[in-house]
Specification:
ANL_N_sf, alpha/beta, AMP-bd_C, GMP Synthetase, Chain A, domain 3, medium-chain fatty acid-CoA ligase activity, Long-chain fatty acid--CoA ligase, Rossmann fold, four-stranded parallel sheet, 492 residues, AMP-dep_synth/lig_dom, nine-stranded mixed sheet
Length: 492
Amino acid sequence: MIQLIERAKGFTEQEALVSNGTSYTYGQLLESAHYVAAHLLSGKPNLEEARITFLVHPSFEYTAVQWGIWMAGGIAVPLCVLHPLPSIQYVLEDTKAEMVIAHTDYIDFLSPLEKRIGVSIASLKSILQNRSTQLPNIDPEQRAMILYTSGTTSKPKGVVTTHANIQAQITTLVSAWEWQQHDYILNILPLHHVHGIINVMSCALWSGACCEFLPKFEAESVWNIIKSGRLTLFMAVPTIYYKLIAFWDSASEMAQEEMSKAASKLRLMVSGSAALPVPVLEKWRKITGQTLLERYGMTEIGMGLSNSYRGERRPGHVGLPLPGVEMRLVDGGNKAVKENEAGEFQIKGPSVFKEYWQKPEATKKAFTEDGWFITGDIGMLNNGYYKILGRDNVDIIKSGGYKISALEIEDVLRKYKGVDDCAVVGLPDEEWGEVVSACLIARDQAIDTKKISEWLKEQLPGYKIPRNYIIRKTLPRNVLGKVTKNELKKMF
């Protein structure tokens, strides 16, 4: 039994989704998902974990396809609508998927793959046609979904979660963030990623709440929806908050007042998927009265830690372990570290993924002998709250015997007048191992980096001061707004 879908049967007359200006009830969602399942089964009793890929805009139809795959006993593999064809082909070949369900907009785009790798393309319209069948019973331990990692350090890996894993990921957030049936949330996040699928859409649907899709982000559209008064929650990545602030800054005083008043009425606003710069948190709080709730999660674990819904939300920190999540902070020998000492986050619990798809060695390496998932993220306990220092092979710079957090230096650099944003990396160096190097996004392309270094000496120890600077207009980012630091290193 898929509990998420079973619960929907208790809300059949309620509004579940708003998509392309149309409102859909839970009953309509269940009916359309049944049509999808019937077409996929075509007389078979169970898909038996067949991988079904789909390329569909964030929409009511997306949700119906995902639920239909689950109802039929398949593994849902959502594809990113912004990815180029080679990235799509990689996922299809890696999962050995025999079918792609595609929106009309993507059928021509995908058609070269029919001959190239023998995959069949089913139109979304045909899959949603009225059809009935007997649905199989689904075991909670059955594989349900494969999401691909961002591949920032190696080729993307398929993260396999079971129905039980997904249920645990949803229920821990529903409990911690106090989701209610009357809640209403806007989904502006990519739906090939845990943030959009679990934190926003699935938590809403578990609760009997409503999720509205906005397939394309536009700051003005988002502000208009906030001003409508229908939202109770909002979740986004830091770059979206940055763009919403920029739009607010450019508005008239009267419009600013209207936007600020509307945003202040939401019960919860969350930031995640990338580190939230403290200046962005502070500016958002200043203009809306909302302290963004920052949390920590990964494709492999769902969400692991969160600042408090009702208590303190400390800037630059990710709070404490969520209900049902076990967490430890350890050194290289898997021994617990003391407070204010850096260590690696390791996670245990029912929300942790089952395996990397068809990669038993990678799966084995991802866990300790006693079953803890090795996140690769470095952090510390700081006055009772956990703080992320960065990813071991991306944000931790090893220079002259020191382990330096790139995120810490970035937070300080953003306070310098004239620096709008920045990213810090370690570049290979024969003498030091790596040297600290900073890319600055500055209004004045002739900004004086010598003055910046002098100013930084008053804020940071000498070994943390960047040796190299480059000035650019934008930072390389993935679809979630996370800086792709390996791409950034090539720019120096």
